[in-house]
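Deviation from plan, reported transparently: S-adenosylmethionine complex.
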Amino acid sequence: MNNQLQNNLPLQQKELMFQNRLLKVYKHKSKQAKRLNIECWRIYDHDLPEFPFCIELYGNKVYVAEYLRRHGMTDEEHEQWLENCITIICNILNLPNENAFIKQRKRMHHRSQQYEKLATEKEYFTVTENGLKFLVNLTDYLDTGLFLDHRTTRQMVKEQCNNKHVLNLFAYTGSFSVYAAAGNAASVTTVDLSKTYLQWAEDNFKLNEFKGDKKYQFIHADVKQYLKTLNPNSFDLVVMDPPTFSNSKRMKDILDIQQDHVELINDVMNILSPNGVLYFSTNYTKFVLDVDNIKATSIKDITKATTSFDFEGKLKRWCFKINK
Ligand SMILES: C[S@@+](CC[C@H](N)C(=O)[O-])C[C@H]1O[C@@H](n2cnc3c(N)ncnc32)[C@H](O)[C@@H]1O
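Because the crystal trials were delayed, the predicted structure below was used instead.
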């Protein structure tokens, strides 16, 4: 903690509680992050209901998402409260306040809204994870470009890619694809419906100096339709991490993961090589895998095995390893 903490604001009782809580978790988790040599990690997620933040560190920048709720403050009071909170956060992290990037997120039922653009500051910067580089943007989108909850899954995938043909579906900025390339995949195909994210994925490949037009392909398509165009035996390892819901204009019909997962997973099973494997993940909290209707030889819930130190007890997503 830096000494600014003692000489700053006349904190309210509740803000003091927030400060103490954050200090405690930061002290504990930063030791683990340091030990694991991790510079991007989640510090706090809604630990205290009255401080509904998600706080993540990206190198020397801090991303603070405030979940919107009825707080009963006037706009001025809320602005002051938020400013106090940012000062508390930055003091504890020993960062200047200008290194904090604040987003206000609604609790969204339809994740389709999640991918809207917020600003156009184009402030991209590079972070490192397990020796690989990724472009992050904390100003222009609701999400940052790197989903931290899959850090362990990415490493797991990398370790199994040697000489394999890898397909990354709903790839976003291609972080799984970068890991696959680093894991010596024979080829990596990255598919997303957003041209912006596909370009971001290509930029992440360039940043890591992975070159090869044939070996690394970036495909702008609706996954539902794209899967139907592939032949059996096309890929050895597939990563599929779809949104809970999607209804982009560019799609033929909507995507609802609870309703559509059996078809999607079975379509992947059809295009996998005989010993192929699918890593399937979903953020839908109430998700139930329809095991009986999936045509696989084995299904393993790897949610726990893919949960890293900064998400323990807080993870709201599922992950399965499904063998053809
Ligand atoms: C949850 S993110 C995937 C996160 C990614 N696997 C990662 O770990 O970085 C969902 C992505 O799906 C894309 N998407 C949504 N609907 C799609 C569709 N029908 N076909 C292809 N991509 C789609 C979005 O553009 C977004 O990039």
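Residues 124-323 form a domain with the Rossmann fold fold (CATH 3.40.50.150). We consider this an acceptable substitute for the interim report.
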